[in-house]
Design goal:
- The protein is of the alpha/beta class.
- It has two domains: 3-178, Leucine Aminopeptidase, subunit E, domain 1, CATH 3.40.220.10; 205-342 and 360-431 and 451-513, Zn peptidases (Aminopeptidase), CATH 3.40.630.10.
- 33% of the residues lie in helices and 20% in strands.
- The protein contains 15 helices and 21 strands.
- It has helices spanning 4-7, 60-72, 110-121, 134-137, 139-149, 180-204, 212-225, 235-240, 244-250, 303-317, 363-375, 390-396, 407-420, 454-463, 500-513; strands spanning 14-18, 27-33, 50-52, 82-86, 95-102, 129-132, 170-174, 229-233, 258-264, 272-277, 279-283, 323-333, 344-347, 353-356, 381-386, 402-405, 425-426, 444-445, 471-476, 482-483, 494-495.
- α6 runs antiparallel to α10 (303-317).
- The longest helix has 25 residues, at 180-204.
- The mean pLDDT is 96.
- It binds ligand BES, zinc ion and manganese (II) ion (MN).
- The site of ligand BES has 16 residues, from α12.
Protein backbone atom coordinates (compact mmCIF):
# COMPACT_ATOMS: atom_id res chain seq x y z
CA UNK A 1 0.00 0.00 0.00
CA UNK A 2 1.70 3.21 -1.06
CA UNK A 3 0.92 6.50 0.59
CA UNK A 4 -0.48 7.67 -2.73
CA UNK A 5 -3.49 5.46 -2.19
CA UNK A 6 -4.65 8.01 0.33
CA UNK A 7 -3.14 11.22 -0.98
CA UNK A 8 -3.97 10.84 -4.66
CA UNK A 9 -7.14 8.81 -4.49
CA UNK A 10 -10.46 9.95 -5.90
CA UNK A 11 -12.39 10.82 -2.78
CA UNK A 12 -15.91 10.99 -4.15
CA UNK A 13 -18.15 10.65 -7.21
CA UNK A 14 -17.66 12.70 -10.34
CA UNK A 15 -20.40 15.36 -10.40
CA UNK A 16 -21.60 16.79 -13.69
CA UNK A 17 -24.21 19.39 -14.61
CA UNK A 18 -26.75 18.53 -17.28
CA UNK A 19 -30.16 19.62 -18.50
CA UNK A 20 -31.12 16.01 -19.24
CA UNK A 21 -30.58 12.51 -17.86
CA UNK A 22 -27.31 10.97 -19.13
CA UNK A 23 -27.27 7.82 -21.27
CA UNK A 24 -25.31 5.88 -18.62
CA UNK A 25 -27.58 6.89 -15.76
CA UNK A 26 -29.60 3.95 -14.48
CA UNK A 27 -31.54 5.72 -11.74
CA UNK A 28 -33.19 9.05 -11.11
CA UNK A 29 -32.84 10.38 -7.57
CA UNK A 30 -35.61 12.76 -6.74
CA UNK A 31 -36.68 14.84 -3.74
CA UNK A 32 -40.13 14.39 -2.26
CA UNK A 33 -41.84 17.13 -0.26
CA UNK A 34 -44.26 15.96 2.38
CA UNK A 35 -47.94 16.70 2.08
CA UNK A 36 -48.73 19.91 3.95
CA UNK A 37 -50.84 19.24 7.02
CA UNK A 38 -54.43 20.39 6.55
CA UNK A 39 -54.63 24.01 7.69
CA UNK A 40 -57.38 25.89 9.51
CA UNK A 41 -59.28 26.49 6.29
CA UNK A 42 -59.44 22.74 5.87
CA UNK A 43 -57.45 22.49 2.64
CA UNK A 44 -57.94 19.05 1.21
CA UNK A 45 -55.11 19.19 -1.33
CA UNK A 46 -52.91 17.87 1.44
CA UNK A 47 -53.08 14.17 0.78
CA UNK A 48 -50.16 13.58 -1.60
CA UNK A 49 -46.50 14.40 -1.28
CA UNK A 50 -45.07 16.41 -4.17
CA UNK A 51 -41.93 16.00 -6.25
CA UNK A 52 -39.22 18.62 -5.91
CA UNK A 53 -38.19 19.14 -9.53
CA UNK A 54 -37.07 22.07 -11.64
CA UNK A 55 -38.89 23.16 -14.80
CA UNK A 56 -38.35 21.16 -17.94
CA UNK A 57 -36.72 18.12 -16.36
CA UNK A 58 -39.78 15.86 -16.29
CA UNK A 59 -42.98 16.31 -18.24
CA UNK A 60 -46.29 16.45 -16.38
CA UNK A 61 -47.22 12.87 -17.21
CA UNK A 62 -43.89 11.54 -15.93
CA UNK A 63 -44.17 13.57 -12.74
CA UNK A 64 -47.75 12.37 -12.17
CA UNK A 65 -46.81 8.73 -12.77
CA UNK A 66 -43.87 8.89 -10.36
CA UNK A 67 -45.94 10.64 -7.68
CA UNK A 68 -48.70 8.03 -8.02
CA UNK A 69 -46.25 5.13 -7.80
CA UNK A 70 -44.49 6.57 -4.75
CA UNK A 71 -47.75 7.36 -3.02
CA UNK A 72 -49.00 3.82 -3.68
CA UNK A 73 -45.85 2.53 -1.97
CA UNK A 74 -46.66 4.66 1.06
CA UNK A 75 -44.10 7.39 0.55
CA UNK A 76 -44.95 10.49 2.57
CA UNK A 77 -41.96 12.72 1.87
CA UNK A 78 -40.94 12.84 5.52
CA UNK A 79 -37.35 13.93 5.85
CA UNK A 80 -34.88 11.16 5.04
CA UNK A 81 -37.45 8.56 3.93
CA UNK A 82 -36.09 6.64 0.93
CA UNK A 83 -38.51 4.94 -1.50
CA UNK A 84 -37.67 3.08 -4.71
CA UNK A 85 -40.00 2.47 -7.58
CA UNK A 86 -39.73 1.40 -11.22
CA UNK A 87 -39.31 4.36 -13.54
CA UNK A 88 -42.07 5.24 -16.07
CA UNK A 89 -41.37 3.72 -19.51
CA UNK A 90 -40.77 7.15 -21.00
CA UNK A 91 -37.78 7.86 -18.75
CA UNK A 92 -34.34 6.59 -19.83
CA UNK A 93 -33.64 5.05 -16.40
CA UNK A 94 -34.76 1.83 -14.72
CA UNK A 95 -35.52 3.07 -11.26
CA UNK A 96 -36.59 6.17 -9.37
CA UNK A 97 -35.17 6.64 -5.89
CA UNK A 98 -37.11 9.22 -3.90
CA UNK A 99 -35.78 10.87 -0.77
CA UNK A 100 -38.03 12.77 1.60
CA UNK A 101 -37.19 16.44 2.08
CA UNK A 102 -39.86 17.02 4.73
CA UNK A 103 -41.94 20.20 4.77
CA UNK A 104 -41.74 22.68 1.90
CA UNK A 105 -40.00 25.13 4.28
CA UNK A 106 -37.05 22.75 4.36
CA UNK A 107 -36.21 23.62 0.76
CA UNK A 108 -34.83 26.93 2.04
CA UNK A 109 -32.69 25.22 4.69
CA UNK A 110 -29.51 24.08 2.97
CA UNK A 111 -28.59 21.57 5.65
CA UNK A 112 -31.95 19.80 5.37
CA UNK A 113 -31.29 19.33 1.66
CA UNK A 114 -27.63 18.38 2.30
CA UNK A 115 -28.68 15.77 4.90
CA UNK A 116 -31.36 14.30 2.63
CA UNK A 117 -28.85 14.12 -0.24
CA UNK A 118 -26.39 12.38 2.07
CA UNK A 119 -28.98 9.87 3.22
CA UNK A 120 -29.95 8.88 -0.30
CA UNK A 121 -26.30 8.77 -1.41
CA UNK A 122 -25.73 6.07 1.21
CA UNK A 123 -28.52 4.00 -0.38
CA UNK A 124 -27.23 3.91 -3.95
CA UNK A 125 -24.54 1.23 -3.70
CA UNK A 126 -24.40 -0.86 -6.85
CA UNK A 127 -25.64 1.92 -9.14
CA UNK A 128 -22.66 3.16 -11.12
CA UNK A 129 -24.20 6.29 -12.53
CA UNK A 130 -27.31 8.17 -11.42
CA UNK A 131 -29.06 11.42 -12.27
CA UNK A 132 -30.75 13.63 -9.70
CA UNK A 133 -33.18 16.52 -9.52
CA UNK A 134 -32.03 17.46 -5.99
CA UNK A 135 -29.75 19.94 -7.76
CA UNK A 136 -32.84 21.84 -8.90
CA UNK A 137 -33.71 22.40 -5.22
CA UNK A 138 -30.27 23.54 -4.00
CA UNK A 139 -27.34 22.76 -6.25
CA UNK A 140 -24.58 23.33 -3.70
CA UNK A 141 -26.28 21.51 -0.84
CA UNK A 142 -27.22 18.59 -3.09
CA UNK A 143 -23.71 18.27 -4.50
CA UNK A 144 -22.05 18.44 -1.06
CA UNK A 145 -24.50 16.01 0.52
CA UNK A 146 -24.28 13.49 -2.34
CA UNK A 147 -20.46 13.61 -2.40
CA UNK A 148 -20.11 13.28 1.37
CA UNK A 149 -22.79 10.59 1.71
CA UNK A 150 -21.04 8.59 -1.05
CA UNK A 151 -17.70 8.89 0.77
CA UNK A 152 -16.12 5.52 1.61
CA UNK A 153 -12.78 4.53 3.12
CA UNK A 154 -11.79 1.02 2.05
CA UNK A 155 -8.04 1.50 1.67
CA UNK A 156 -7.25 -1.14 4.28
CA UNK A 157 -9.62 -3.83 3.04
CA UNK A 158 -8.34 -6.65 0.90
CA UNK A 159 -10.58 -8.37 -1.67
CA UNK A 160 -11.94 -10.50 1.19
CA UNK A 161 -13.91 -7.69 2.76
CA UNK A 162 -13.96 -5.03 0.06
CA UNK A 163 -17.62 -4.30 -0.72
CA UNK A 164 -18.74 -5.65 -4.10
CA UNK A 165 -21.23 -2.85 -4.52
CA UNK A 166 -19.89 0.67 -4.36
CA UNK A 167 -21.58 4.07 -4.34
CA UNK A 168 -22.12 5.81 -7.72
CA UNK A 169 -18.93 6.92 -9.42
CA UNK A 170 -20.84 9.42 -11.52
CA UNK A 171 -23.76 11.69 -10.67
CA UNK A 172 -25.59 13.83 -13.23
CA UNK A 173 -26.92 16.93 -11.52
CA UNK A 174 -29.99 18.06 -13.41
CA UNK A 175 -30.43 21.82 -13.75
CA UNK A 176 -32.72 24.04 -15.80
CA UNK A 177 -29.72 25.58 -17.52
CA UNK A 178 -25.96 25.10 -17.34
CA UNK A 179 -25.39 28.75 -16.48
CA UNK A 180 -22.05 30.25 -15.50
CA UNK A 181 -23.44 30.58 -11.95
CA UNK A 182 -24.38 26.90 -11.84
CA UNK A 183 -20.89 25.88 -13.00
CA UNK A 184 -19.26 28.07 -10.38
CA UNK A 185 -21.58 26.75 -7.67
CA UNK A 186 -20.77 23.16 -8.56
CA UNK A 187 -17.03 23.82 -8.66
CA UNK A 188 -17.31 25.35 -5.21
CA UNK A 189 -19.35 22.45 -3.80
CA UNK A 190 -16.84 19.92 -5.11
CA UNK A 191 -13.93 21.84 -3.58
CA UNK A 192 -15.72 22.01 -0.24
CA UNK A 193 -16.78 18.36 -0.16
CA UNK A 194 -13.42 17.08 -1.37
CA UNK A 195 -11.65 19.08 1.34
CA UNK A 196 -13.95 17.57 3.96
CA UNK A 197 -13.05 14.17 2.48
CA UNK A 198 -9.33 14.99 2.81
CA UNK A 199 -9.89 15.59 6.53
CA UNK A 200 -11.93 12.37 6.80
CA UNK A 201 -9.18 10.39 5.06
CA UNK A 202 -6.57 11.68 7.50
CA UNK A 203 -8.73 10.75 10.50
CA UNK A 204 -9.61 7.35 9.02
CA UNK A 205 -5.99 6.40 8.34
CA UNK A 206 -4.91 4.24 11.28
CA UNK A 207 -2.11 5.26 13.65
CA UNK A 208 0.06 2.43 12.30
CA UNK A 209 0.16 4.29 9.00
CA UNK A 210 -0.32 7.90 10.05
CA UNK A 211 2.36 9.01 12.52
CA UNK A 212 3.85 12.51 12.74
CA UNK A 213 6.50 12.16 10.02
CA UNK A 214 4.05 10.57 7.58
CA UNK A 215 1.24 12.98 8.47
CA UNK A 216 3.59 15.90 7.80
CA UNK A 217 4.70 14.37 4.47
CA UNK A 218 1.09 13.92 3.33
CA UNK A 219 0.21 17.45 4.41
CA UNK A 220 3.16 18.66 2.34
CA UNK A 221 2.08 16.69 -0.74
CA UNK A 222 -1.54 17.85 -0.58
CA UNK A 223 -0.62 21.40 0.44
CA UNK A 224 1.94 21.87 -2.34
CA UNK A 225 -0.50 20.51 -4.90
CA UNK A 226 -3.02 23.16 -3.80
CA UNK A 227 -0.39 25.88 -4.13
CA UNK A 228 0.30 26.40 -0.43
CA UNK A 229 3.68 27.35 0.96
CA UNK A 230 4.80 24.47 3.19
CA UNK A 231 7.36 24.38 5.98
CA UNK A 232 8.06 21.41 8.28
CA UNK A 233 10.10 21.48 11.48
CA UNK A 234 11.45 18.09 12.57
CA UNK A 235 12.17 16.98 16.14
CA UNK A 236 15.73 18.33 16.13
CA UNK A 237 14.58 21.76 14.98
CA UNK A 238 11.70 21.73 17.47
CA UNK A 239 14.04 20.95 20.36
CA UNK A 240 16.59 23.56 19.24
CA UNK A 241 13.91 26.25 18.93
CA UNK A 242 12.33 25.58 22.32
CA UNK A 243 9.08 23.83 21.46
CA UNK A 244 8.97 22.18 24.90
CA UNK A 245 5.28 21.25 24.74
CA UNK A 246 5.53 19.34 21.46
CA UNK A 247 8.82 17.70 22.49
CA UNK A 248 7.50 16.80 25.96
CA UNK A 249 4.37 15.11 24.60
CA UNK A 250 6.19 13.41 21.71
CA UNK A 251 9.25 12.11 23.49
CA UNK A 252 7.66 8.88 24.72
CA UNK A 253 7.27 7.65 21.14
CA UNK A 254 9.80 6.29 18.68
CA UNK A 255 7.84 8.24 16.05
CA UNK A 256 9.16 11.74 16.61
CA UNK A 257 7.08 14.93 16.46
CA UNK A 258 6.77 17.51 13.71
CA UNK A 259 5.38 21.02 13.27
CA UNK A 260 3.82 21.75 9.89
CA UNK A 261 3.13 25.26 8.60
CA UNK A 262 0.94 25.79 5.53
CA UNK A 263 0.23 29.23 4.07
CA UNK A 264 -2.27 30.64 1.62
CA UNK A 265 -1.71 34.27 0.62
CA UNK A 266 -4.59 36.65 -0.09
CA UNK A 267 -4.67 38.45 -3.43
CA UNK A 268 -5.87 41.80 -2.04
CA UNK A 269 -6.91 41.62 1.60
CA UNK A 270 -4.43 42.46 4.37
CA UNK A 271 -6.36 40.43 6.96
CA UNK A 272 -4.48 37.49 8.46
CA UNK A 273 -5.99 34.39 10.02
CA UNK A 274 -3.97 31.88 12.00
CA UNK A 275 -5.26 28.31 12.21
CA UNK A 276 -3.98 25.79 14.75
CA UNK A 277 -5.07 22.14 14.96
CA UNK A 278 -4.25 19.37 17.41
CA UNK A 279 -2.34 16.59 15.67
CA UNK A 280 -1.96 13.77 18.17
CA UNK A 281 -1.72 10.80 15.79
CA UNK A 282 -2.54 8.49 18.70
CA UNK A 283 -3.33 9.31 22.31
CA UNK A 284 -2.69 6.49 24.77
CA UNK A 285 -2.69 9.05 27.56
CA UNK A 286 1.05 8.52 28.05
CA UNK A 287 2.15 7.54 31.56
CA UNK A 288 -1.29 8.69 32.79
CA UNK A 289 -2.51 5.88 30.55
CA UNK A 290 -6.09 5.60 29.38
CA UNK A 291 -8.28 2.55 30.05
CA UNK A 292 -8.28 -0.07 27.25
CA UNK A 293 -11.99 0.28 26.43
CA UNK A 294 -12.44 2.45 23.34
CA UNK A 295 -8.83 3.59 23.32
CA UNK A 296 -8.86 2.80 19.58
CA UNK A 297 -11.00 5.91 19.08
CA UNK A 298 -7.86 7.92 19.88
CA UNK A 299 -6.86 7.46 16.25
CA UNK A 300 -9.10 10.52 15.83
CA UNK A 301 -6.96 12.68 18.09
CA UNK A 302 -5.52 14.46 15.06
CA UNK A 303 -8.96 15.53 13.85
CA UNK A 304 -8.22 19.20 14.56
CA UNK A 305 -4.99 19.03 12.56
CA UNK A 306 -6.77 17.27 9.70
CA UNK A 307 -9.45 19.97 9.65
CA UNK A 308 -7.09 22.96 9.59
CA UNK A 309 -4.92 21.38 6.89
CA UNK A 310 -8.01 20.67 4.78
CA UNK A 311 -9.45 24.14 5.43
CA UNK A 312 -6.21 25.81 4.35
CA UNK A 313 -6.19 23.73 1.16
CA UNK A 314 -9.81 24.79 0.64
CA UNK A 315 -8.90 28.46 1.14
CA UNK A 316 -6.44 28.06 -1.73
CA UNK A 317 -8.88 26.15 -3.95
CA UNK A 318 -11.61 28.75 -3.45
CA UNK A 319 -9.00 31.52 -3.56
CA UNK A 320 -10.54 33.09 -0.46
CA UNK A 321 -9.29 36.66 -0.12
CA UNK A 322 -7.68 36.40 3.30
CA UNK A 323 -4.20 35.23 4.24
CA UNK A 324 -4.24 31.98 6.16
CA UNK A 325 -1.43 30.18 7.94
CA UNK A 326 -2.03 26.82 9.57
CA UNK A 327 0.39 25.88 12.34
CA UNK A 328 -0.02 22.18 13.02
CA UNK A 329 1.77 20.35 15.84
CA UNK A 330 1.98 16.58 15.36
CA UNK A 331 3.04 14.05 18.02
CA UNK A 332 2.21 10.58 19.31
CA UNK A 333 1.41 10.37 23.04
CA UNK A 334 2.95 7.10 24.28
CA UNK A 335 4.12 5.70 27.61
CA UNK A 336 7.75 4.53 27.67
CA UNK A 337 11.01 5.02 29.51
CA UNK A 338 11.54 8.20 27.51
CA UNK A 339 8.03 9.55 28.11
CA UNK A 340 7.33 12.62 30.20
CA UNK A 341 6.15 11.89 33.74
CA UNK A 342 3.31 13.34 35.81
CA UNK A 343 5.03 16.11 37.75
CA UNK A 344 7.55 16.96 35.03
CA UNK A 345 7.93 20.63 34.20
CA UNK A 346 8.33 21.68 30.58
CA UNK A 347 8.99 25.04 28.98
CA UNK A 348 6.53 25.97 26.28
CA UNK A 349 7.63 27.78 23.13
CA UNK A 350 7.96 31.42 24.23
CA UNK A 351 9.16 30.60 27.76
CA UNK A 352 6.16 29.85 29.98
CA UNK A 353 6.67 26.83 32.24
CA UNK A 354 4.01 24.17 32.77
CA UNK A 355 3.78 21.42 35.37
CA UNK A 356 2.45 18.31 33.62
CA UNK A 357 0.24 16.84 36.34
CA UNK A 358 -1.53 14.56 33.89
CA UNK A 359 0.19 13.38 30.71
CA UNK A 360 -3.23 12.68 29.19
CA UNK A 361 -3.92 16.41 29.03
CA UNK A 362 -1.39 16.55 26.20
CA UNK A 363 -3.37 18.39 23.53
CA UNK A 364 -3.18 21.74 25.29
CA UNK A 365 0.60 21.35 25.62
CA UNK A 366 1.23 20.97 21.89
CA UNK A 367 -1.42 23.60 21.10
CA UNK A 368 0.18 26.15 23.43
CA UNK A 369 3.49 25.94 21.52
CA UNK A 370 1.69 26.19 18.19
CA UNK A 371 -0.51 29.12 19.33
CA UNK A 372 2.53 31.11 20.49
CA UNK A 373 4.29 30.41 17.20
CA UNK A 374 1.20 31.26 15.15
CA UNK A 375 0.78 34.59 16.96
CA UNK A 376 4.36 35.64 16.16
CA UNK A 377 2.93 36.33 12.69
CA UNK A 378 0.58 38.95 14.18
CA UNK A 379 -2.71 37.47 12.95
CA UNK A 380 -5.97 39.43 13.25
CA UNK A 381 -7.82 36.22 14.06
CA UNK A 382 -6.85 32.86 15.53
CA UNK A 383 -8.97 29.72 15.25
CA UNK A 384 -7.72 26.61 16.97
CA UNK A 385 -9.54 23.31 16.90
CA UNK A 386 -8.88 20.11 18.78
CA UNK A 387 -10.28 16.82 20.01
CA UNK A 388 -9.39 18.26 23.37
CA UNK A 389 -11.63 16.98 26.14
CA UNK A 390 -14.02 14.16 26.94
CA UNK A 391 -15.85 16.91 28.83
CA UNK A 392 -16.93 18.37 25.48
CA UNK A 393 -19.12 15.30 24.97
CA UNK A 394 -20.42 15.42 28.53
CA UNK A 395 -21.48 19.03 27.98
CA UNK A 396 -22.75 18.99 24.38
CA UNK A 397 -22.99 15.41 23.15
CA UNK A 398 -21.22 13.82 20.23
CA UNK A 399 -22.39 16.09 17.40
CA UNK A 400 -22.10 19.61 18.76
CA UNK A 401 -18.68 21.25 18.93
CA UNK A 402 -18.05 23.71 21.77
CA UNK A 403 -16.63 27.09 20.80
CA UNK A 404 -14.89 29.35 23.29
CA UNK A 405 -12.69 32.44 22.97
CA UNK A 406 -13.05 36.21 22.70
CA UNK A 407 -16.76 36.96 22.94
CA UNK A 408 -17.47 38.59 19.59
CA UNK A 409 -15.40 36.26 17.43
CA UNK A 410 -16.63 33.19 19.35
CA UNK A 411 -20.22 34.15 18.56
CA UNK A 412 -19.33 34.82 14.93
CA UNK A 413 -17.75 31.37 14.60
CA UNK A 414 -20.83 29.78 16.20
CA UNK A 415 -23.09 31.69 13.78
CA UNK A 416 -21.12 30.63 10.69
CA UNK A 417 -21.04 27.06 12.01
CA UNK A 418 -24.84 27.08 12.31
CA UNK A 419 -25.05 28.39 8.73
CA UNK A 420 -23.19 25.34 7.39
CA UNK A 421 -24.93 22.79 9.62
CA UNK A 422 -21.93 21.96 11.82
CA UNK A 423 -23.65 23.76 14.71
CA UNK A 424 -20.78 24.67 17.04
CA UNK A 425 -22.22 26.17 20.24
CA UNK A 426 -20.79 29.12 22.18
CA UNK A 427 -19.48 28.24 25.65
CA UNK A 428 -18.00 30.50 28.33
CA UNK A 429 -14.49 30.73 29.75
CA UNK A 430 -15.28 31.32 33.45
CA UNK A 431 -12.47 33.43 34.93
CA UNK A 432 -12.53 31.63 38.29
CA UNK A 433 -11.16 28.46 36.69
CA UNK A 434 -7.82 30.20 36.13
CA UNK A 435 -6.97 29.89 39.84
CA UNK A 436 -7.40 26.11 39.61
CA UNK A 437 -4.57 25.94 37.07
CA UNK A 438 -2.02 27.32 39.57
CA UNK A 439 1.02 25.11 39.96
CA UNK A 440 3.09 24.44 43.05
CA UNK A 441 6.31 24.80 41.05
CA UNK A 442 5.70 26.22 37.56
CA UNK A 443 3.83 29.12 35.92
CA UNK A 444 0.83 26.92 35.23
CA UNK A 445 -0.44 23.36 35.73
CA UNK A 446 -1.87 21.51 32.74
CA UNK A 447 -4.99 20.32 34.62
CA UNK A 448 -7.25 21.47 37.44
CA UNK A 449 -7.52 19.29 40.57
CA UNK A 450 -11.20 18.63 39.77
CA UNK A 451 -13.28 17.63 36.77
CA UNK A 452 -15.82 20.47 36.71
CA UNK A 453 -16.06 22.36 33.45
CA UNK A 454 -13.29 20.27 31.90
CA UNK A 455 -13.82 21.68 28.40
CA UNK A 456 -13.77 25.22 29.73
CA UNK A 457 -10.67 24.61 31.89
CA UNK A 458 -8.81 23.46 28.77
CA UNK A 459 -9.95 26.67 27.07
CA UNK A 460 -8.73 28.73 30.04
CA UNK A 461 -5.35 27.01 29.75
CA UNK A 462 -5.08 27.92 26.04
CA UNK A 463 -6.21 31.50 26.71
CA UNK A 464 -2.97 32.02 28.66
CA UNK A 465 -1.07 31.74 25.38
CA UNK A 466 -3.26 33.96 23.19
CA UNK A 467 -2.19 37.63 22.96
CA UNK A 468 -4.79 40.19 24.14
CA UNK A 469 -5.11 41.83 20.73
CA UNK A 470 -5.94 38.66 18.79
CA UNK A 471 -9.57 37.72 18.16
CA UNK A 472 -9.66 34.08 19.12
CA UNK A 473 -11.94 31.05 18.84
CA UNK A 474 -11.19 27.59 20.22
CA UNK A 475 -13.37 24.76 18.87
CA UNK A 476 -13.46 21.53 20.88
CA UNK A 477 -14.45 18.69 18.54
CA UNK A 478 -13.70 15.65 20.76
CA UNK A 479 -17.03 14.03 19.79
CA UNK A 480 -17.93 15.70 16.48
CA UNK A 481 -14.66 14.83 14.68
CA UNK A 482 -15.27 11.09 14.81
CA UNK A 483 -18.51 9.22 14.30
CA UNK A 484 -18.35 5.99 16.32
CA UNK A 485 -22.04 5.24 15.77
CA UNK A 486 -23.90 4.44 12.58
CA UNK A 487 -23.94 6.78 9.59
CA UNK A 488 -26.48 9.63 9.63
CA UNK A 489 -27.26 12.24 6.97
CA UNK A 490 -24.08 12.93 5.00
CA UNK A 491 -21.96 11.86 7.99
CA UNK A 492 -20.40 8.49 7.34
CA UNK A 493 -18.75 6.31 9.97
CA UNK A 494 -15.34 7.36 11.28
CA UNK A 495 -13.83 10.75 10.48
CA UNK A 496 -16.46 13.42 9.83
CA UNK A 497 -14.37 16.32 8.57
CA UNK A 498 -15.89 18.65 11.19
CA UNK A 499 -15.13 21.62 11.43
CA UNK A 500 -13.68 22.14 7.93
CA UNK A 501 -16.83 23.84 6.63
CA UNK A 502 -17.16 26.06 9.71
CA UNK A 503 -13.59 27.29 9.28
CA UNK A 504 -14.11 27.87 5.55
CA UNK A 505 -17.31 29.83 6.24
CA UNK A 506 -15.51 32.00 8.79
CA UNK A 507 -12.66 32.65 6.34
CA UNK A 508 -15.16 33.70 3.67
CA UNK A 509 -16.97 35.91 6.19
CA UNK A 510 -13.67 37.61 7.07
CA UNK A 511 -12.77 37.99 3.38
CA UNK A 512 -16.14 39.65 2.73
CA UNK A 513 -16.59 41.72 5.90
CA UNK A 514 -13.17 42.06 7.51
N1 LIG B 1 -7.82 13.25 23.32
C1 LIG B 1 -8.38 13.36 24.61
C2 LIG B 1 -9.82 13.90 24.60
C3 LIG B 1 -10.83 13.01 23.93
C4 LIG B 1 -11.59 12.14 24.69
C5 LIG B 1 -11.06 13.12 22.59
C6 LIG B 1 -12.54 11.35 24.07
C7 LIG B 1 -12.01 12.32 21.96
C8 LIG B 1 -12.75 11.44 22.70
C9 LIG B 1 -7.54 14.31 25.44
O1 LIG B 1 -6.18 14.31 25.17
C10 LIG B 1 -7.69 13.88 26.86
O2 LIG B 1 -7.25 12.81 27.17
N2 LIG B 1 -8.30 14.73 27.69
C11 LIG B 1 -8.49 14.43 29.05
C12 LIG B 1 -8.18 15.68 29.84
C13 LIG B 1 -8.12 15.44 31.33
C14 LIG B 1 -6.93 14.60 31.67
C15 LIG B 1 -8.06 16.79 32.02
C16 LIG B 1 -9.94 14.00 29.25
O3 LIG B 1 -10.82 14.55 28.59
O4 LIG B 1 -10.18 13.11 30.03
ZN1 LIG C 1 -5.65 13.79 23.25
MN1 LIG D 1 -5.15 12.80 26.20
Amino acid sequence: MSKNDTVDRVRGPELELSTSIGKDDSALVIGLISASSPDAEGADDAAEPTLAIGDGILDDAQAAAITAALTALGATGSHGEVTRTAAPETLPVDVVVAVGLGDADNLDDADQVRQAAGIVARELDGLESVATTLSAVDLIAAAEGLFLGAYRFDEFRSEKSRPKKTPPQHITLLVESKSKEARAALERAIAVADSVAIARDFVNTPPSHLYPEEFAARARTLGSKAGLKVEILDDTQLAAQGYGGIIGVGKGSSRLPRLVRLSHTAKKSTKKVALVGKGITFDTGGISIKPAANMDAMTSDMGGAAAVIAATILAARLDIDVSVTATVPMAENMPSSTAQRPGDVLTQYGGRTVEVLNTDAEGRLILADAIVRACEDDPDYLIDTATLTGAQMVALGTRTPGVMGTDEFRDRVAARSADVGENAWAMPLPAELRADLKSRVADLANVTPHRWGGMLAAGIFLKEFVPEDVQWAHIDIAGPAFNTGGPWGYTTKGGTGVPVRTIAAVLEDIAANG
